[in-house]
Amino acid sequence: MKHERMTMNLGKQSGKAVKSIIFPLAVAIVLAVLVGAASAPQNSSQHKVFFEKAKFTMETKGDLKGAIGLFEEIIKKYPGERDYAAKSQLYIGMCYEKLGFAQAQAAFQKVLDNYPEQTEAVFLAREKLMTLTRLYAQTLENDGRFQMRRIGEASSSWTGCSISSHGKFLAFADRMNSSGEVAAYDLSSGKVRCLTDDANETEGAWECVVSPDGRRIAYGWLNNDDDTEGLRLVAMDGSEPRILYSDTKGVPMAPVDWSPDGKDIVVYHQGIGLVSVDDGSIRVLKRSDPKLRYLNGRIRISPDGRYIAYDWPPESSDGNRNIFILSVDGSYDAPLIERSSNDTLLDWCPDGKSLLFRSDRTGSSDAWRIWVKDGRADGPAELVKKDLGLIQPLGFTQGGSFYFMNSTGGWDICTAKIDLNASGVIEGPENPLEEGVGRNVSAAWSPDGKFLAYITSGPGRDPVIRVRSEETGREREISPQPGFYGVEWFPDGSSLKVYGEDKEGDRGLCRVDTRDGAVETLLKQTPEAPLHRACLGPEGKTIVYSSYQESEDLSSIIAYEIHSKRKREIWRGKGKVGLPKSSPDGQWLALEIPQGNGSERKLAVMPATGGEMRELAVSNSGGDFVWAPDSQQILFAKLIPGSGYGNSRQGLWVVRLDGGPPRSLNLESRLMWLLTIHPEGDQIAYSTHKSGAEIWVMENFLAGKPTRGR
User: Fold this and answer.
1) 257: closest CA among 270, 246, 242, 268?
2) Which of 177, 474, 490, 587 is most solvent-facing, going by the fewest CB within 10 Å?
3) Cβ–Cβ under 8 Å, residues 453 and 459
């Protein structure tokens, strides 16, 4: 369904939408539940069932008010089940977080006060309180006028967002049901209106930027079928669609700003350039590294149109970025600030005499302001706002208000205890990691089951590998060059196979020593052979991956011998198959193969040395799977019918190699990715993602003089 056929009111979810719930009916339903529960005999698992019902009401039905009532009833009815009571109180706070700050803060505080021994719930509640305290603060110490306000919520499908100069609407590429339609979000009414209707599965919009007069939107266009990239325009009422620039060389073009007079569009096109709105001609101002195909930084033109400020990917080993100033006539290009901190651009201030930027120079991610004269710094930078966090900047309005988005989602690792010979999941799922909630992904147990390795990140830092002792819970960090993920242990238990970027900037597979963090490049990626989910073969001596030749619609499965660096094809066939995984005994390979029109994928196995492929089960999700330790069963994630984009859920299933239908393990999650299983076969771990963002505005901070920094 196209977006224009819907009417959404995302911005009012925290107020009027909730009041529109028929309160007497909700009360009657809750009372009916209470009466029924009181008359029914209690058992040891009844509180768990009630808890899942409350979660379903909150997460799937979206009935926050009803969910609060159910969670409160669990606390009253089952006070002895303190772990579930604490979780219920935590979820009450999460519901109120969407409905009102004061109630959310009080609810999270109750977790700390009433359930101090429930360490996991206390940790999560404390993190929530810290976030609320930081984001919902209305004033700072400067003169009491500084304000930060939450405007509304943004969908996880919105990308390439841009604020209009009058602050009335937000333009974005909406990837809800296609590759990206251009849409506008009215900040006052909370309604979303779609402006284009020509995107599909292979082509669509990505970056958007609003013209200075608010009448037009420039957006990038990607077409994966014919490798065409380009720049397009559309009017705010959806009329006058126009292709401004087209490039058939497959080099992405991202619009980043408009010139103040509206005659040119600033673009990133493997460098910085200006595209004429009249005739689509491009003038290149600065070339970048050819490897930087996509926009990787922020680029903004000054209000007087004389200079372009940008932050560029770092060349130094410490990963820090710097802000540069480029004159539009090309005569000047130099760093604005030269220091060892990580400085990234937010925007030019409306006066054109200063820049707002983010820096970690004091140890946290703060907002700073620096005055600029003739393209050079005019005095030291001054602190504007502490602990701004890793926000997505949207830009300034003419009135001096700065808009940004704050992510409310992230990756987490969940574990559950399972019994593959009985009912499946017997306990969980739960989050076993105490640090970095929302920032952990890609777990793997060591061959002896004593350690859990995973990837974690944090505000202002690149992802690193952590290794956690299952016996003591203690963790240690391994910090190779940044950008790695997809952890898999070598059989010797002393090193990890990871996917990422090596020191030369090439992507591929590397070996990381868990003792000293030393990195060895094993195999570099090619366009025909994506290696992000390639697996280790028997005894860790080979890497097994699939290669696809699109022109012939042929797939190959390749075994790469690490020591000799020889490649051997072990299977070839029609269609694009998934990436294989080797069984623990090294006898089999499992992979997903397309069915019909490709919307469904079937799980299949074949001998590790090559041979006939045998189908096992329909997955229909493109999800993940993992071998059981006995090499006779495969666990896989399957999309639950009826769950759609933005609220899709998966269930965990198991199928045997010797035949029989797949069997549900009675575990559901919004997403199950990067599955891993304990060597003893009694625990499953997976990565899950929650996405979303909030729109915020920072006001009344340009008139006065900010607190002077160093």
Assistant:
1) 268
2) 474
3) no
